[in-house]
Amino acid sequence: MSKTRFSPFTILLIVLGLFLAVFPFVNDSRTMLILFTQIFIFSIFAMSYNLLLGYTGIVSFGHAMFFGLGAYAIGICMKKLEPGWNGVLLAVLITVALCAVLSFLVGILTLRLKSHFFAMLTLAVAGLLMVTAEKWRSLTMGNDGFTFRVPDLLKDRISLYFIALVFMVLTYLLMRRFTFSPVGKVLVAIRENEQRVESLGYRVLNYKIIANVVAGTIAGFSGILYAVSLRFVNTSVFATEVTLDALLMTIIGGVGTLFGPILGAALIEIAQHGLMDLAKVHWIFERWVILFGTIFILVVMFFPKGIVGSALQWQFKRKNSQKATLDKKERSKAATH
Amino acid sequence: MTLLKVDAIETYLGQYHILQGVSFEAKKGEVTVLLGRNGAGKTTTLRSVMGLAPISDGVITYNNKPIHKLPTYKISNKGIGFVPEDQGIFNDLTVEENMKVAMKKKDDVTMERLEWILKLFPDLKTFWHKKGGYLSGGQKQMLSIARSYINSNDLLLIDEPSKGLAPIIVEKVMRSIQEMKEKTTVILVEQNFMMASMIGDRFYIIDDGKTVHSGDMKELKEDEQLKKQYLGIA
C-alpha cells in the first residue's frame, strides 16, 4: 500500500490554515482580528504585485491605481445604492471591468517601453487618478473621503475575517495555477530574457499585457476588501505609499515565490502594528518608517531573494551537499572493495 | 534553391556602424558557414536576420519574401530557429520547461523530434527536472541547440556552438548539427575552422562588416593564403 507523503512546506501550510481557521474562536482581541484581516487583504494585493515584479520582471510604481479603483467602486456603489448584496455585486463587476480595461490600456500604451519608463508612466497614471478623485468632489468627497454602510454580514468582524481569508487562499491557488501554466512559464522566461522569448516566436507584449490585466484585476479585489474593512474610502488608496508597501512586502517575503508576498504582508503589518505600540516606550518607534527603511536595506543587502527565496536556496544547497557527501561515501566504499 | 538571401545589409548598434554591406545566400539543405575574425560582424549578421538588430539598409528575403521589416516573433514563426552565442537558457525554468516554452506545437511530429533529441543529448534526459541555471556550460549549449531542434524549422541560425566547450562536447554538438543537416538548412557562425570545415558546404568570410570572400568549403580548405589572410590560420 502506498503512503501519501507531504512535504514540510505542505504540513506548515496545513497547520497555518488550521490555526487561522480556529483563531477567531479562541481569540478575544478585536485588534488582532482586524490586524489579521488587514494581513489577508494586503497579501492579496502583494500577490498581484508579485505577478508583475516577481514573475514577469515588470516594475510598476502605480499599482495602487487598481487598488484605489476597487476601493472607490465599492464605496460609491454602497453610498449611492442600498447597502445590499446587489450593490456589492455591481461594485465587483465595475471593479473587474474598470481594472481590466485600465490595465489593458496602460499596458498597451506603456509596456512597449523600457522598464524604467514603464515604471514612471504607471506612477503618472496613478497620480492622475488620485487628482481625479481629489477634484471630483461630488462623487468622491475629495481628500476628506466618505464613510458608507455595508451589508450586515460584512459588518461582522469575524465574517469579514473569513471572507478575506477565503479570498487570500483563492488568490494563492489561482496564482499557483497561473504561474504553473504554460503562460506562467512564458512570463518567467520573459523576466529572464525578453529578446530570447521573442526569437522563440512569442509576441512578448501580449504576455506582458495578460500579466498586467490579471494583476490589476486582483489588486482591484483587494481594494474592495480594504474599503469594506474600513467602511471608509479617501484618496489615500491611490497613494504611491500603497504601491511601495506592496513592493516591500514582495521583496522582503521573496520576489517570484508564491508564499513570499503573504509572509511579507504579515511581517510588515505586524511590525507596523508592533512598532506603533512601542511608541509609548520610546519616541523613535513613532518614526517606524525609518526603521522599516533600515530593515528593507538590510534585507536587500543580505537576503536579496527575500525570506522565502533565501530559504529555498538554502534548502537546495543543503540537499546538494547531502547528495555530494553520499556520493563521496559510496565512491570510497567502492574503492575499498 | 535559395532559402535565405541577405543583400548588402547595413546595421548600426548605437552609434557604431557594424555591418557595412554584408551579403550572402543560404541554399536549401546546405550548411552555410560565416567565418571571420572576432568583431568582424558575424553575430550581428545573425541578429539582423532575426530582427534583433534591425538593419538600416539592404534587403533580407526568406523564400523570396522580404522579412527585414518584420518583428522578431514573426520572423521566428516563419520557421527560422536561432541559437544565440550566449545560449539564452532560462535559468529559473527546468530543462523540461525550457523545451516546452520553445515548442510551437505539441503534435506527434514534435514528440517524435523530442525523442530523437533526447537520444542525441541523453544528458538532457538525466537533468530533465533540473533548473537551467544549475547546468554546466556544455549542458546549457546542448539545451540551447535542442530547443532550436524541437520545431520543424526550415532554417537554423547557430552562433558559435563550440565556444568555451570541452572538445568532447564540441564533437557531440557538431555531430548533432550534421544529423540536423538532413532535416533543415543551417547557417553557422563558427570560430573553430576545423569543425566548420567538416560540416560546412559553403562559406562566406566577413571582415570589418563586409562580405569579402565566398565559395565552396572544399576550396577554402586548400587555400592557405586566404585562411592566413582572413582567419589567421597558418
Automatic annotation (TrEMBL), chain A:
Subcellular location: Cell membrane
Membrane topology label: Multi-pass membrane protein
Transmembrane feature ranges: 6-26, 33-52, 58-76, 88-111, 117-137, 158-175, 209-234, 246-268, 288-312
Pfam families in the record: BPD_transp_2 (PF02653)
GO molecular function terms noted in the UniProt entry: branched-chain amino acid transmembrane transporter activity
InterPro entries recorded: ABC_transp_permease (IPR001851), LivM-like (IPR043428)
Keywords: Cell membrane, Membrane, Transmembrane, Transmembrane helix
Chief localization: membrane
Presence of the UniProt keyword Transmembrane helix in the record: yes
Keyword Ligase applies: no
A GO CC term assigned to this protein in UniProt: plasma membrane
Cross-referenced PANTHER family: ABC TRANSPORTER ATP-BINDING PROTEIN, HIGH-AFFINITY BRANCHED-CHAIN AMINO ACID TRANSPORT SYSTEM PERMEASE
Protein name: Branched-chain amino acid ABC transporter permease
Organism: Exobacillus caeni
From TrEMBL, chain B:
Keyword Transport: yes
UniProtKB keywords: Amino-acid transport, ATP-binding, Nucleotide-binding, Transport
Gene Ontology process terms (BP): L-amino acid transport
Domain of life: Bacteria
PROSITE patterns: ABC_TRANSPORTER_1, ABC_TRANSPORTER_2
Keyword Cell cycle: no
CDD domains documented for this protein: ABC_TM1139_LivF_branched
A GO molecular function held by the record: ATP hydrolysis activity
Start and end residues of each ABC transporter domain: 4-233
Any Pfam family: ABC_tran
Similarity remark: Belongs to the ABC transporter superfamily.
Protein name: ABC transporter ATP-binding protein
UniProt source species: Exobacillus caeni
